[in-house]
Write a sequence for this structure.
């Protein structure tokens, strides 16, 4: 298993190096691509500049600005229509089961088959900020996990990830997005963490669907590195295996090996592979944890999770 994961990781890293990630910050440069026809959207209290085109119906694509209801995700052409809709829209949260709530943070599970229009609208919204997304209308085979912030007005969408109900390759994320106003606040890490929490509860190893976008690769690599350093900092034995790490964290061995290689934490010596704990990296990780200790906690508290794996449910 180790050698197979290592070979796959090496091929992926070579491909990543060849492509050289271009997207590093929320502020986008088009790099010669066709500029988005819809320049901005009004979404709740935010006016957000778009990054990419999205296949909205033709009469909407001609609009420079689109108005989207933040609760039901209906899209409209004008502020007048949006105001009228807002006055009568009954929705105040995603149309699914609330499976996690802690303080003002909630996560809803929405079935693409039961709430097809809502999920299609969510995918169209996401495409405005994702270059690689191809899922728009075939939402029925997917579950959507929507992260929200709650206030007296309702549950405001922060971001989401989707996953196939039955993934042959055991992918635990098909698409993941944090909306621009909520970026750099720890929500991306929280969504990734939540996807692995669900995988561990299912008794499976998780991995995001490949290939990852440039921004997705950066986010996941940072997440995997942080979790590995956390694991190593608490590990006191002299021997360690990829299998042990995989079973404990719920990570696919390929993702573990590719991350170790990317950060110089594994080497081959005299026909054996050695994982390097890298004390300086662990020390830097601990210093970072001390610095962010006073920031809002985005960790998943298992006692607030009310969720049964789909395979164990009785309809």
């Amino acid at each position: 298993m180790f050698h197979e994961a290592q070979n796959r990781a090496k091929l992926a890293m070579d491909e990543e190096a060849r492509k050289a990630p271009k997207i590093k910050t929320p502020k986008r440069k088009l790099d010669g691509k066709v500029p988005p026809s819809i320049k901005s959207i009004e979404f709740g209290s935010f006016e957000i500049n778009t990054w990419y085109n999205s296949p909205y119906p033709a009469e909407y694509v001609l609009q420079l600005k689109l108005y989207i209801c933040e609760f039901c995700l209906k899209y409209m052409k004008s502020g007048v229509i949006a105001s009228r809709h807002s006055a009568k829209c009954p929705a105040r949260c995603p149309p699914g089961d609330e499976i996690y709530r802690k303080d003002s943070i909630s996560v809803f599970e929405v079935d693409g088959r039961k709430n097809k229009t809502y999920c299609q609208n969510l995918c169209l919204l996401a495409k405005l900020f994702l270059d690689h997304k191809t899922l728009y209308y075939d939402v029925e085979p997917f579950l959507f996990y929507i992260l929200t912030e709650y206030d007296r007005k309702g549950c405001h969408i922060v971001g989401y990830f989707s996953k196939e109900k039955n993934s042959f390759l055991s992918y635990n994320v098909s698409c993941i997005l944090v909306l621009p106003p909520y970026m750099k606040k720890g929500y991306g890490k929280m969504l990734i963490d939540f996807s692995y929490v669900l995988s561990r509860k299912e008794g499976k190893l998780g991995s995001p669907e490949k290939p990852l976008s440039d921004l997705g690769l950066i986010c996941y690599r940072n997440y995997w590195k942080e979790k590995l350093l956390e694991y190593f900092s608490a590990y006191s034995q002299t021997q360690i295996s990829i299998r042990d790490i995989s079973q404990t964290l719920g990570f696919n061995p390929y993702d573990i090996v590719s991350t170790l290689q990317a950060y110089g934490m594994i080497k081959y010596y005299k026909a054996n592979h050695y994982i390097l704990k890298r004390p300086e990296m662990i020390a830097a990780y601990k210093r970072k944890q001390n610095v962010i200790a006073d920031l809002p906690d985005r960790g998943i508290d298992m006692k607030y999770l009310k969720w049964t794996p789909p395979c164990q449910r009785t309809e």
